[in-house]
Amino acid sequence: MNRRRLLQRLGAGGTLFTAGCASVGEKPRPFDFAVVNRRERSYHVEFTLWNDADETVVDGAVDIAPRPPADEEYTRVSLDDIARVTNGDSIEARVRTAGETFEETYDVTCNRSGNAENTLVFSIRHPDAPAADGSGMEFRGSEC
Q: How far apart are the first and last CA of the chain?
C-alpha cells in the first residue's frame, strides 16, 4: 500500500498531522516538468518521470533549440500539469542527453503554499556557469 492511500484511510475519522508534510483532504495540485537550455547549441533530450507508485507520468523526448542571441537568456520547453501531486509525493526523473544520464528524486513539499509551484527543471547551464559536476547539467526544483 502506498503512503497516500494509507494516510487517506487513517484520516477518514479525523485529522492526521505528519511531519509538516501531507494532510488529509489536501487538494492535489499540478506538477510541471521543464527543460531549459542556456547554451548556444541545440540538444536532444530524452526523459522519463514516474511517481512513487512506479507509474510512468511521462516518457518522451524533445529537441531543444539553442538559447536565442543576446535578447533572451535561455530556451525553455515546458510540460505543464503532467500529474497531480500532494505534499509527501515523490517524482523520480531520468534524463539522457549528450551521451550522459542524469537522475533525480523530487519530493513534493510546497503543495499547500499558495504562491509555490510543483516544478522540476532540467537545466543545461551555460558552459561558464559553476556546476556541481563537469557536465554543467543539473536538476532543480521548486522551493517553498
A: 28
pTM of the entire predicted model: 0.78
The alpha carbons of the chain give a radius of gyration, in whole angstroms, of: 17
Over the stretch 100-130, which tens digit does the pLDDT of each residue have?
999 999 999 887 776 778 999 999 998 787 7
Q: Cell numbers for 93, please give them.
A: 526523473
- Total domains in the chain come to 1
We report the CATH number of the domain holding residue 82 as 2.60.40
Asked if the structure places residue 4 within a domain, the reply is no
Smallest CA-to-CA distance from 49 within 40, 39, 58, 62 is with 58
